[in-house]
Amino acid sequence: MVEEWIFDNYSVESARINEFGITIPLRSKTILQDSLASLYVLGEAQNAEVIFHPKLPPAHADSVKLVFQNNALEFYPLNPTYQHHSANGSQVILKDIVSDNPLLQVHIKTNTALDSAILKLLEAYEITLPLSAPNAKIASDLYIGLNLDTLDLTAKGIFKSKDIEVLLQKTPLISDSLNLQLDNHLIKVESKNTSYQDLLKSDSNFVIDTQAKTISGDLLITSLLLSKESPEVLQITNQSLPFNVNFAQKQKIVFALPTFNFEAIFGQNYVFHLNRLSGILPFSKILQEYKITEGMLQIRTQDFEKYFADISVQTEQEILRNKQDNAPLQTMDLTFDYTPLGFTLQSKDGSFVLQNNAEAKRINLKNLSLGLDLEQFSNNSPSDNIPILIKGQDSNLWVKNRNILADSFEIALVNGEINVGLKHKNGQANLYKRGDFLTLDAKEFGDEFINAILQKKGVHKGRFFVNANTNEKGALIGKITLLNTSLNELNVLQNVMAFIDTIPSLLTLKSPGFNHKGYYVNEGVVEFGLNDEFLAIEALDLKGSSIDIKGRGIVQIESQVIDFNAELITAKSFGGIISKIPLVNYIVLGENGAISTAFKIDGTLENPQVHTQAVQDFLLSPFNILKRVITSPFEIFN
């Protein structure tokens, strides 16, 4: 095998022997072995080529110094090159030639790139690296020892470089310094200030096992971003993370961060698996803002510019809700499509779509309920003045724990202004808000819409209108109009009825249009004022089929305490007959032509208390009649 290696693998243009010496022990019984032990030859070959491996091209040298001594043949090339790579300082030694275990020793010294030629050389000796550095200058000192009988391999080396760009598959990594120590199948690597674009900066210490084709070690991450345009998605700083890599398959490299239960596959495409979102919650503002508690994520990309992801999340968010019961959505299956121009995030059932680009952020909802806080919504307006546009189809709004039904709605936040348009059956509402100023115009809404807000069957049939504006003092001043409706299941009304039941003299107030089944209102108007502390009913005027109600009062917002004075105007039919006699009408019914009973309502909206001075009014009625008799001449004169 030694003879074959020397004479079949070497070719030279010319050669000569400069020195030759041998001592022959004539009396030795092993004269040949003893003579070879003393043999010394110094030779020189010109224009030499040598093949180190049958699968590799030859190395070349202008000349080679050959020394045979101590049963070893040494080769010292002058200006050696391999595939245009200089290897000055390299040498080859064949030791123990006349023995059962001849040894080939190759010492390679270079300062060259880790390109395809060098990688193929290493692969020929079963050293596979998952990286390359075709444009780098790597100072290398490599020793390869090969037993030509057993083919056992020993490899040791040191590789050093500064300001180096390394390609991990097609991914470029730039390091201030990179040091490698080769010890047979183990390569210890230390890198300083390694970066990938503006997304990654880190130091690393790891070991490459070229037999198992694995890498394991630690990353000291200075900073890590998933996207520099959207740092809120993922941003890690000053973290030490263990990692491992498997490059057993040539087509792909598998990279894992066990701390995060994260796995990345680098191949023709790049695929990232995150099996537990909770692991990166401290580093993702967007997950925190949307109150994500757990989930799974898979991201795919070809160029680290465009991404596509499948996301399954568990969340405590309260913005998106079930339409049926207004319970916040706790689980969602989403897809994420990202390009440098923007991204789209949508649920797989199509109920939720978020589109974000430089022009606007658009949200489309279908068969959902949107939790909306106008104050928070306007206060969190984007600093870049990008409009936020929200459209809902067969979706409701959930505002201050109240359900607002909608066949469709549109919400626009532009330059700090909020515009809301909403439709439900025949009803249509428009709201505008800027700062503390708000205007609301709603018309032709039905009982289903009102009852959803009241959270009870408070009205039956009818038409409802609201118009309100903020005044200069910051209070919302408005008017509510209701037509042809029946008021039912209202605590105040029920308590009035209960109070009437306790006083027999008041039972005559009850009529088909005013009883426990409800209060029918032909036309009603409520004028109100609202600020942060109080709801003031400036005037309440309800005209019913048998009884009218007028009143005014105030409600404390936080405590829900009510202080309200109301008047039931009754005997309207009686007043209609007697009103034909002007003097008698004035004396019996009073100035408004009707008999009335005053009520005071206090307590809270949930438990209102009703009081009246009906008995005193009855006892004092003669005096009132006398008073009106006394004043009647003035009325007659008028």
Describe how the helices and strands are arranged.
Blueprint lengths: L1 H8 E2 L2 E8 L9 H8 L1 E11 L8 E11 L2 E7 L2 E2 L2 E2 L4 E5 L7 E12 L1 H9 L6 E17 L5 E16 L2 E13 L2 E11 L3 E10 L4 E12 L9 E12 L6 E5 L4 E5 L3 E5 L10 H5 L2 E10 L5 E9 L4 E3 L8 E9 L2 E6 L4 E6 L3 E6 L1 E4 L2 H6 L8 E6 L2 E4 L2 E3 L3 E7 L2 E8 L2 E8 L2 E9 L1 H8 L4 E2 L2 E8 L5 E12 L3 H12 L11 E2 L2 E13 L3 E11 L3 E9 L5 E9 L1 H7 L3 H8 L5 E9 L4 E5 L1 H24 L1
Parallel strand pairs: 26-28, 27-29
Antiparallel strand pairs: 1-3, 2-3, 3-4, 4-5, 5-8, 6-7, 8-9, 9-10, 10-11, 11-12, 12-13, 13-14, 14-15, 15-16, 16-17, 17-18, 18-19, 19-20, 20-21, 21-23, 22-27, 23-24, 24-25, 25-26, 28-31, 29-30, 31-32, 32-33, 33-34, 34-36, 35-37, 36-37, 37-39, 38-39, 39-40, 40-41, 41-42, 42-43, 43-44
Helix pairs in contact: 9-10
Model description:
The protein has about 650 residues and is mainly β. It is built from ten helices and 44 strands. The protein has a 38-stranded mixed beta sheet that branches. Helix 9 (about 580-590) packs antiparallel against helix 10 (about 615-635). It is rod-shaped. The termini are far apart. Residues about 585-590 and about 620-638 have low confidence and may be disordered.
Q: How many individual β-strands?
A: 44
Compute the gyration radius: what is it? Answer: 46 Å
Number of helices: 10
| Fraction of helical residues | 10-25%
For the report, how would you describe the main beta sheet? Answer: 38 strands, mixed
Round the mean pLDDT to the nearest integer and report it.
84
What percent of residues are in strands? over 45%
Distance between the termini: 142 Å
pLDDT < 50 runs, ≥5 residues: 583-590, 618-638
Main structural class:
mainly beta
**Overall shape:** rod-shaped
